[in-house]
Each structure stands twice: as C-alpha cells, then as structure tokens.
Amino acid sequence: MTTASGRGARDPMALRTAMVAELSEDTIRSEAVAAAFSVVPRHLFAPGESLDVVYDSNTPLVTKTGTDGTALSSVSAAHIQAVMLEQAEIEPGMRVLETGSGGYNAALIAELVGPQGAVTSVDIDPEIVARARACLQTAGYDRVRVVQADAEYGVPEQAPYDRIIVTVGAWDIPPAWIAQLSERGRIVVPLRFAGLSRCVAFDLTGGHLVSHSYCLGGFVPMQGAGAYSETLVPINGEATLRVDGPDPGFDVPALRKAVHAPRIERWSGAAFDMPDELELFVVTSASHVPFLYASQQLVDQGVFSPAVTYGTAAVVEGGSFAYRTKRGNEGLGGWESGVYAYGPQAEAVADRYVGLLRRWAADFRRRGAARIEYLPTSAGVPDGWYVPKRHGAVAVSWR
C-alpha cells in the first residue's frame, strides 16, 4: 500500500487518499466510486483499530467473533468493497438494499445514490445493527436505514430495489431477493456453489438471473434461514474432501488407500495462469468435483503439493483421484499446468483432468468466459451443467 510518512502517516485523510490512489490503480474504474471512497471516513467504522490497519485496502476489520474465534461479522476489505460497487454500477437516485451491516459500505452506497436515493441495510444480529447505526450516525449518514431482520426475507417495506448488494457469503438466492428487485434490478452476491465462491453481478432477465460479471471473492457465511454447511468427507485424519450438498458416495476406504500409494504426474503442455477461472471451468465441467484439503504434514512428507493446504479441485473416479498442480516452464510464459493422480485408475483420471486443462487453455483462457445463471425452481431444470439449490439452481455454461 502507498503510505504517507511523518505527520501525514497519522492523518486519516492522508491515509484515505493513499488508499484510494492504490485502489484506482487496478480496482476502481469510475469517478463516482473513487469519490465515495475519498469522502467516507473508514476509521469511524472501526473505532479502536490502528489507522494503518483501517486504511490497508486488503485488510478486513473483524467486528464480532464467536466463542471459537471464528469471525461472525466484519467490515470487508476496501478492495473487495470497491470491486462489488463497481460491479453494481449504482446510479444517483437508486434504491439499494445491503445485506450484512458493517456501516461503512452502506455509507459508500449512500454517497453513490445521493440525497434522492435510498439505502437500507439489514442484519440478523442486534449487536451488529446497533453498532452500524452508531457508526453511521457518528459519520453523518443518518439517512441510511439499518434494519434488524433475517436477510433471507429481504426488507419488503422499502422495496422495490434497483440494487441488492450482499456482503455475506450466500449459498442460495432467496425468492424474496428476486421478488423485491425492480425491473432494472441487479443483485451483487458472493455466491457459493460447487465448493467455490464467486462475487456475481446478476441482472434480472425474464424471471431469472443472468451474470453481468463475476470475480473471485468470499465473505463471512450468512446466518439465519439462509445458513448452510458444507459436507466434509474425511479420507483420513490429514486429508478431507469437501462438497456442497450431500455426500455423493465416495469410496472412502479405497481413496484412503490411494493417498499413500505412489502417485503419477501428467503435464498438459498448456500455460498455467488465471487459476480462479481455470478452477471454475474444472468444477463446472464434471459432476461431483470436490475440493481436496490436506495438512501441512502431508505436504512436508511429499504426499501432496502445497496447493492442498488451501483447497484444490479434485476429479474423483471410484478409488482414484487427481488434482491440479504446476511447474516452471519459461516456454509457456512461466508456468505449465499438470496433475498428480492416485489410485488404481490414476492413468485414466489423470488423462481426464489433463483434457480439461487443455480444453480450458485452448478455448476459454480469458476473464469472463463463463455465463452464470440462477433459475428459480419455477423455471424448471436447466440445460447443461447445473447444481441444485433450495430455491432453484445455479447453471454455468462457457462461451
């Protein structure tokens, strides 16, 4: 981050200016969003925090934790807030619903909609609601409505909304959000599906939602009626498969045996870059692709590569599986994609995965190649790849 020195380093305005300058290098594209970040005093929404921390564009500010230390609420990092506000393309006079109240983002939205617009922020936690109201009042944004309610049901009293901006991790799109959109409505939501999370800007089109844009992003999970827990399938104490939805019936004893058997490696001859786009392609081009997580101990033992400590998409067939890796290759611009495969069918599963890597590199190696749709249950079963949700389905196609 660009920082001021001397006296300026302790000046919130100087730090805010530096933060906006940094965000404007690669994130903020519009004058309106830059102006909002330049005006709103972020430090007033994080009392007690160091100014250097508050104005670090990549640092979220945790405002409440559970008894186990898990973050329950936070003021998101300024970087992801800027990304989502650019996705939203908010205009003066719009009506906006924010789900998940930290106060700061609502103040940014209030700047964007102006005095003729309206901002409603909803949160299920009374402590967070009280905190957001107090911070907004201190910062001079009394016109923002902060409502305590379960965001699963929206806030119908202030509907319709031209924009709904979701600042919690959502597993589904509740019917209320779609019903409370205006005809020109857009929902910007960090949506979890197939084991990954993407911030998707959905436009309302013919009764369902179609992506306008998407990018990498994750948030504190939604609470209340919209809460959802992923399924964990332990292979052993050090390695786990994680899936959204029910366990598809993995052959755990066979997979456990495969983990400690010799592995094979296969290289694609294709460049490795944009791993978030590549991963989205892999998980939406096959059925039941879980994410493999493993301990640092197994990495140190040479069983897995370091990627598994953060989670990586795995293709599973019976008692065999493969996951993506990379190696240096200057001829391809720096890195080459490949796979490690385990189990009696390692050759076959490796070939299948490598085929996906090559297809992505040949046909879809660019930003925004996926079309993500959300179809309510009433719209029927979508064509192609999709994953069912409580209230509908997420469908992904490539173009």
Overall spatial form = globular
Q: Give a count of the beta strands, DSSP E runs of length 2 or more.
A: 19
- Architecture of the largest domain in CATH? 3-Layer(aba) Sandwich
Helical content class = 25-40%
Give the CA-CA distance, first to last residue. Answer: 36 Å
The mean pLDDT is 92
CATH level 1 class label of the largest domain: Alpha Beta
Radius of gyration, rounded?
22 Å
Low-confidence parts = 1-8
Largest sheet, spatial ordering of strands:
5-4-3-6-7-8-9-17-19-18
CATH topology of the largest domain: Rossmann fold
Largest sheet descriptor: 10 strands, mixed
Write down the domain tally. 2
Our estimate of the beta-strand percent is: 25-35%
CATH superfamily of the largest domain: Vaccinia Virus protein VP39
- SSE pattern, N- to C-terminal: HHHEEHEHEHEEHEEEEEHEHEHEEEHEEE
Keywords: Cytoplasm, Methyltransferase, S-adenosyl-L-methionine, Transferase
EC number: 2.1.1.77
Family: Belongs to the methyltransferase superfamily. L-isoaspartyl/D-aspartyl protein methyltransferase family.
Subcellular location: Cytoplasm
